[in-house]
Every structure is written in structure tokens, then in C-alpha cells.
Amino acid sequence: MSDRESVDVLVIGSGIGGGTFAAGLAPTGAKIVILERGERLRDSREARDPRAIFQRGVYRPDESWLDGAGQAFNPGNYYYVGGNSKLYGAVLLRYRAEDFSPIQYRDGATTGWPFAYDELEPWYTQAEKLYQVRGALGFDKTEPRHSGPYPFAEVPDEPAIAVARERMQRVGLHPFPLPLGVDIERWLEGGQTPWDAFPDTGHGKMDAENCGVNVALAHANVELRVGARVDRLLVDPDGRRIAGAEVVKDGERREIFAKIVVLAAGAVNSAALLLRSGERGIANRSDNVGRHFMNHNASAVLAVDPFKVNDSVYQKTLGINDFYLGDGRGGPPLGNIQLLGRVSAPILKSNLAWAPEWALALMTRRTVDWYAMSEDLPSPESRVTVDGAQIRLDWKRSNWSAHEGLVATFKERLRAAGYPIVLAKPFDRRTPSHQCGTVRIGDDPATSPLDPYCRAHDHPNLFVVDASFLPTSAAVNPSLTIAAQALRVADHIAENDL
Ligand SMILES: Cc1cc2nc3c(=O)[nH]c(=O)nc-3n(C[C@H](O)[C@H](O)[C@H](O)COP(=O)(O)OP(=O)(O)OC[C@H]3O[C@@H](n4cnc5c(N)ncnc54)[C@H](O)[C@@H]3O)c2cc1C
Question: Is the pTM of this model over 0.85?
Fold first, then answer.
């Protein structure tokens, strides 16, 4: 008997892209194997211990990448079943309809998408069902058309956050309930902590393991292999079809063949894998694989009111889009603002190692913590390259003046709202949380590796469905858009390729 293994669909990576795709394709009955380099994240005391998570970095990978200057850094990129969504903030916002068209900023422009918002809308609705999104329509002026309501009512504001909401309204802003993939009662049963950047070990976060992989595994035709790292894609001698993948599991290297290969290893790792798999890379006739890396310009903005205690636990229920489509003064867009998960003294200390925790606790008790996010624009010089197994991430930030404008404008409003001290700090390069764009979709094979259904222009049986495909980063969190497109691609494959 030959030990040559052949399947219908090989999915590489079990994050939002891969996990959701598998859930979408599973009902077809196709034989699907998901290869995931990480393991399932088990419950432990560390899962709710901010010192373990933020100071000791127990969930971070034992891996280093090089930055553009050749300096090694340990990336906040998580390798588990469910990928980065195991630690995500579960904000499940749609891109705004305007994000699909070119946008002019102060210092640059986006190219837009190869299709309009309405094309993706039905799958946004499906993705919101799959991820059991909690939200409320009608509060955000930038909200795109929804063909149905959210599956569940919004997560309630804690009392201290209800006060913050009123303060924002008093200075003319329009806070809206953040759409969230969290069952708050279940989350708090696991411990009185926020969920943003805390690992989900089965306590109510709607991540790609619970809502993607496990949904797919309810079908007998789907199999998950953990600890299975793909090192290379295999190409047929004709150079067109992808034959399968070379996988290392339990120290053993083997080849698995497939009719269809769906890459979903994350925007940095998918690009790296494609580049490593051929002399000029795979799917890289355009020389665009690894280019156009984007990651959002993001800052933490801490608003301190010395006379008001913030006793909230999870905090993360408000968004503000007043500066999303314009700066409020007739100028170009600045970005989105949303609450961060509650920043406690042990979390803040991971950035301010010199400060005593008791002093930080005095401050954080009186702080409301926000996250300001601006679009990062696609640039061919912002890129992932490889040297053997080593990944180099040369992220060229763009659109920084829009981000500075967002932070400055928001600081003004916070001061007017009664927070006399406002501190802001940009997130640094070691945090590629919103990585995207490295294997983008487009109509033109000369400028994009993938077609609008995420199929490689060069290889008819290769698809890339993680955040790599995003042609723009918008200024909202990426996961719901990755999930919607993964479901759209699954339906397309079911109709055309199986
Ligand atoms: C702290 C944090 C907070 C965030 N908050 C939000 C939020 O509130 N809302 C939001 O929308 N987004 C948020 N994000 C971003 C979001 O998590 C990501 O955009 C999303 O999870 C990306 O999904 P993906 O499928 O592109 O890739 P990934 O999540 O990176 O999944 C890729 C998977 O592939 C596996 N893999 C990698 N290489 C290989 C290989 N060679 N072989 C086999 N398997 C491999 C990985 O282990 C991983 O499981 C956050 C991220 C972080 C880190």
C-alpha cells in the first residue's frame, strides 16, 4: 500500500482565515485536513494572571524576527489552534462602505478594493452569526448597510463606562456600542479580568477555535492536526498546480497532496511560506508577495481624572467614529477610537518596568483607557522577506500625520470632557496584531498575487484566506472582514472547484 496521502482540501493554519474557511466548506462533505503548527490552548492559572501574560510573556512565541534595521525582536504573534484570535479583543466591526473605494488622506491614498462593500455584505451577516456578535445598530453614523440585526444585544457598559460615554456625548462625540464576540457572563465566570489580550481558554470568547475550527470539526469529513508545521508548498512539474505541502509533525517530515490548497498561516507567515517555496517564491509573478505589509497606526490614550475612580473590569464596550470619514473640520479622515481592555497596574508595568506597581495602581484606578487607530497605507517597500527560516519584517509606517491628528484631536476632546491628564503612547513594531496586505487581492495579475476570490492568479488551485489578502487595512479591526471573505471564498470553491 502506498503511504502517499491525498485529500480534497488542505487548509494551512487555523486562525480566523483558516478556521472560518473550514467551517464554511465543511458542509460540502469534501475531505478537509487542517494543519496547525500550534497546539490547543489549555486552561491554567496563568490565563487570568496579567503578570504572567504581560510581564513574563508566557503566551508569546519562542521565535524572533528581524526588523528593517536587522534587529531581532520577539513578535506578539500567537501560534495556537485559533491563532491570534485566542488573544484578541473580539471587536468584530465591519469595514465601512467607504473603505472599499480609494481614500485620500493628508499624506497619501489607498487604492480601494476590486469590489464594493455590497458584494461582501451577505457574508458579513453570516460571519456575525458564526461569531455570535453582540451589538446594536443605529448609533454610528459611519455604519454601512446591514441586511440583518446583530444576533445578540450589545455587551452592557459597566457603570464607570456609562459615565465615560456621557462625558464623550457632552463634548459632541457619538460613542456607539462596539460589536463584540464575547459572552460576558461566561467570560467573567472564568475570572474577573478583561478579555482583550488575555488568552481564551474556553470561557466565552468567540474566537476562531470555538466558532471556526470546532464548527468545522462537527463534520466527519474534517480533520485537525495540531503541532503540524508546513515548511514548503509543493508545485507540480508544470509550475501551475500546487501539488500539496511538506509538513513536519512529531519530528517527522512528510508530504501531503491535495486538490486544493488553502493557505491561512497569517499575513507574515503566509508570505514567508510562499517566498520560501520557490526560487522566486510561489504565486509571485508580480513580485508582490510579501509587499504592502500593513499593521495600523495605533496608540494607547490614557485619560486620567484624579477625582473619579474607574472600577470597571472589562471596560471595552465603546467605539467612536466621529473622525473616521473626516477630521471634523472639513479635512481628510483620521481614524477610529475604541476602548482598550481595562489597563491595570501589572499591565502598565510591562511598559514601565522602572515604575513601582503601587504607584501605577494609584493612576490606573483613575484612568479610562482608549485605543486610537488610523489606517496604514499599502506601500511596496513595506515588506516581509525571508532568509532561509529567518523572517525579516521591514514595516514602513505610513499616514502617520493622520494618526498624530487623531490622537491630538481626541486628546483635546478628552480634556474638554473633564480628564485633565491625557497620556498617549504608540504601540511599537513588536506588536504586529493587525498585520495584513502581504498577498493582496486585485484584478490585475501584474500588481496583485490573488484574484478577488483569493485564488492565486498564477496557480488555479491555491487560495490565501488569512489577513494577507486585504488590499487595504481600513481603520477598524480586521477579523470580521477576514471571516466574511473566508466564507465567501468557501462558497465560491464549493460552487466552482469541488
Ligand atoms: C492582542 C490582540 C488583540 C486583537 N484584537 C482584535 C480585535 O479586537 N478585533 C479584531 O478584528 N482583530 C483583533 N486582533 C487581530 C486578529 O487577531 C487577527 O487579525 C486575526 O486573528 C488574524 O487571523 P489570520 O487568520 O489572518 O491569522 P492568524 O491568527 O495568525 O492565524 C494563522 C494560523 O496559522 C498557524 N500557522 C502559522 N504558520 C504555520 C505553518 N507554517 N504551518 C501550519 N500552521 C501555521 C498559526 O499558528 C495560526 O494558528 C488582535 C490581535 C491581537 C494579537
Answer: yes
